[in-house]
Automatic annotation (TrEMBL):
Alphabetical keyword list: Disulfide bond, Glycoprotein, Immunoglobulin domain, Membrane, Signal, Transmembrane, Transmembrane helix
Signal peptide: 1-20
Database matches in Gene3D superfamilies: Immunoglobulins
The protein, known as: Ig-like domain-containing protein
Compartment list: Membrane
Recorded topology in the membrane: Single-pass type I membrane protein
Length: 454
């Protein structure tokens, strides 16, 4: 569209100047040289005398039959072929030129009118994008949400078209604005990440079609308002702790820093002090470096963006399996032992073991193991007297191994007169077990862990 406008202007210009005789237009560039051809000179036969007229007045002439070299001054010269060469073009050289190539008997006269137009530029291109900060590689960056102004100027004679063109990282280039006036200023309000890309100001001389451009790479920097996400889990059979921190949606890549929160570790160096320029940072810690209540903190920041650092943290918790420590059941019936493990961080691996020797319970016809949320169940089928004894709900995470001991008492079925009464008494016994057992366990745990819980 811009192009056709230039063309229209050019045509209008030409027809305005020309008087009907003009057959050719030549555009020269200020300071350069141009050669105007003299058509119709016979290449064989009689050599003629060539005269060049500018706006009807003789500017240069040459007798091509004479051995003498080109005549005229340095500015105008007529070549052996009769063409007029103008060097060091000046604006004043614009005009209608005609070549008068009369042969001696005036029969082969040919005349051509040539309009010479002088163009200059584009030159002195200058662009300014603000408010921005210059990076060492020459790119500019701006904070997301800023209002950015783009200013461009250039010099061109007789006229020019200036345009601002945007080429995004993934998109095709698009014309933002264009004008025939300099400077050309545009602004983008509330700049967004998809405005990151290359901004070029292009100037085209409307007469010579010569173009010049200046491109600037503009980065849009931002950081999320959210906090980073922290999570932990046990790896290598709880020998190690894996800590993961991620913070996406930052440009440029943020700095993530995992550290052990000062405090409990006193004067020893922190076990964790790792920084990296990344969106997600994973670190592994050895079991021997961990304790209950220890807090690991992930700090995320983008120091190119004026916003505060964001944090997330993980406070390690020992496992703490809870449940009835005393369970009584009747021979021949089925019983389900349960244990709840919901305090461990990272989540514990909870298993059932039996007897003082702590044999791992193998699921099968005798034992059914199930898990519902934080509750772990062990169902023992068709109880016999041999099933009596201690069972252990064992929870392990990289911080600690904790066990809940459940003592199962199996009553002989003959002891009870009727099933209903027996079940009632059994329930009563279990109820007492809950009250007594839980508190006994809690007391024991407190003694074991000292001041570890808090
Ligand atoms: C000059 O050349 C043209 C064709 O190039 C020819 O027609 C003409 O007869 C020639 N004239 C002379 C005088 O040789
Ligand atoms: C051109 O030069 C030739 C040879 O020098 C000469 O015979 C002729 O008269 C000259 N013509 C003019 C118009 O000066
Ligand atoms: C060629 O130039 C001479 C000298 O200016 C002039 O007398 C003559 O009329 C011109 N011929 C034509 C066809 O313009
Ligand atoms: C000059 O012109 C006449 C006709 O006007 C022509 O007969 C003659 O051959 C021409 N002379 C030359 C030397 O071309
Ligand atoms: C754009 O640049 C021109 C020329 O340098 C200047 O006069 C004008 O004030 C600038 N505009 C803005 C908005 O900076
Ligand atoms: C980019 O241009 C190409 C061809 O010019 C076209 O096929 C493609 O759809 C364009 N893509 C976008 C995102 O405009
Ligand atoms: C400039 O471009 C236009 C359109 O493409 C063309 O018509 C014109 O001749 C060109 N001018 C020059 C000096 O090349
Ligand atoms: C821990 O497990 C990872 C893979 O999960 C393995 O690369 C690494 O060697 C293991 N470390 C130890 C000490 O077992
Ligand atoms: C963490 O490491 C950095 C360098 O790696 C060090 O400058 C800093 O003092 C360390 N922080 C602590 C608390 O040791
Ligand atoms: C854990 O760290 C201790 C001391 O730093 C080291 O002796 C031990 O080998 C490490 N264990 C593993 C499994 O990496
Ligand atoms: C864990 O489970 C126990 C019993 O179900 C409940 O009282 C306690 O509030 C739970 N704790 C958490 C942190 O969910
Ligand atoms: C329960 O076990 C006893 C003795 O081991 C056996 O006789 C009885 O058939 C079993 N009952 C069921 C329902 O499996």
């Amino acid at each position: 569209m811009e192009r056709s406008m230039h063309l229209l202007l050019l045509v209008a210009h030409l027809t305005g100047v020309a008087t009907g005789q003009t057959s050719e237009t030549i555009v020269g560039t200020l300071g350069d040289s141009v050669s105007l051809p003299c058509h119709g000179i016979p290449s064989n036969g009689t050599r003629s005398v060539v005269r060049w007229l500018k706006d009807g007045k003789i500017a240069a002439s040459r007798n091509l039959s004479s051995m003498a070299g080109p005549t005229g001054n340095v500015h105008f010269s007529v070549s052996d072929q009769g063409s007029l060469t103008i060097s060091g073009l000046l604006l004043s050289d614009q005009g209608i030129y005609s070549c008068n190539d009369s042969v001696p008997n005036h029969t082969a006269e040919k005349q051509t009118d040539i309009q010479l137009l002088i163009a200059n530029g584009p030159s002195n291109m200058w662009t300014d994008i603000k408010p921005t900060v210059l990076l060492p590689n020459g790119a500019l960056f701006v904070q997301k949400g800023s209002d950015v102004s783009f200013n461009c100027s250039s010099e061109s004679y007789p006229s020019q078209a200036l345009s601002w063109v945007f080429q995004g990282d993934t998109s095709n280039s698009s014309l933002l604005s264009s004008s025939d006036r300099s400077p050309l200023e545009i602004s983008l309000l509330n700049i967004q990440p998809n405005h990151q890309g290359t901004y070029s100001c292009i100037s085209q001389n409307m007469l010579s079609n010569r173009t010049a451009s200046k491109s600037t790479s503009l980065l849009v920097y931002y950081a999320p308002d959210r906090h980073p996400e922290c999570f932990s889990h046990a790896i290598n059979d709880s020998l190690h702790l894996l800590l993961h921190c991620s913070w996406s949606g930052s440009n440029p890549l943020p700095m993530l820093h995992w550290e052990e929160e000062p405090g409990a570790h006193g004067t020893r160096p922190p076990v964790l002090n790792v920084s990296m320029t990344t969106e997600s940072l994973e670190v592994t810690l050895n079991r021997s470096q961990l304790y209950n209540g220890q807090t690991m903190r992930c700090k995320a920041y983008n120091n190119m963006v004026k916003s505060e650092a964001k944090f997330c943290s993980i406070t390690l918790q020992s496992p703490f399996p809870q449940g009835n420590p005393l369970v009584t059941a009747v021979e021949g019936s089925d019983i389900t032992l349960t244990c709840t493990e919901n305090s461990s961080l990272p989540p514990a691996k909870t298993t059932w073991r039996r007897k003082i020797s702590q044999e791992e319970v193998v699921p099968g016809a005798k034992y059914v193991i199930s898990e519902l949320g934080p509750t772990f169940s062990l169902k023992i089928i068709n109880l016999t007297k041999e099933d009596e004894g201690p069972y252990f709900c064992r929870s392990e995470n990289p911080v600690l191994v904790q066990e809940l001991e459940v003592f199962l008492t199996v009553k002989s079925s003959q002891t009870y007169a009727g099933g209903v009464v027996g079940a009632f008494i059994a329930a009563l016994i279990i109820g007492i077990g809950i009250a007594v057992g839980t508190s006994a366990y809690r007391n024991r745990d407190r003694i074991c862990l000292g001041s570890g819980f808090g």
